[in-house]
Amino acid sequence: MRSWECLPSEMRTSSVKPYYSILRQKKAALFAKRAFDLAASAVLILALSPAMALAAIAVKLTSPGPVLYRQVRRTAYLKEFEIIKFRTMADGADKKGPLVTVHSDSRITPAGKFLRSKRIDEMPQLFNILKGDMSFVGARPEVEKFIAHYDDEMLATFLLPAGLTSESSIVFMDEEKILNSAVDPEQAYIYEVLPKKMQLNLEYIRTYSFFGDIGILARTLFAVFAQKR
Question: Does the global pTM surpass 0.90?
């Protein structure tokens, strides 16, 4: 971890300091976290390359536009990075509608609907993990528009890399369906869903352990397969 003095000024607050102190005492667990991320992402990229190739072909053949969707998000220490996913919506959809997606969103392509239902669209993020911009477990990376609504304590989530999954991801796995009934999905996300997700993300830091990460990964796999059934 960076020294306290090297954190971005926005993070050097009394609200973030307790979380920083907790993580400073868990250097071995954080080292194991990064080692696991490197090894597991490399293995999974090789193992899943045929599935990713098929997904890329499906995206390219079923809608005009690039195969990958790229968007600037923030990760540890508020660093900007470009998250990558398989594109599941019409090209430029994020500029033509809300940044949150509801279950019945007309911008989702036919292939995109399938990729989302199986979580295949998230596979390219293995490269984000291998690079170090993300981890398998951690708070999901948000866009700047939603980060603007974080309070000082919520910025503690940037002490760790953004994650592919988290406890909040499991709890809100049906987030799109939840927002589908909202009059204004973005406002519902900012004022109803986001605060609850952040409470879970902060609790994750307070109780962080490497084996806790393994548990979250196991519960994520279980939740995904249960959802399919």
Answer: yes
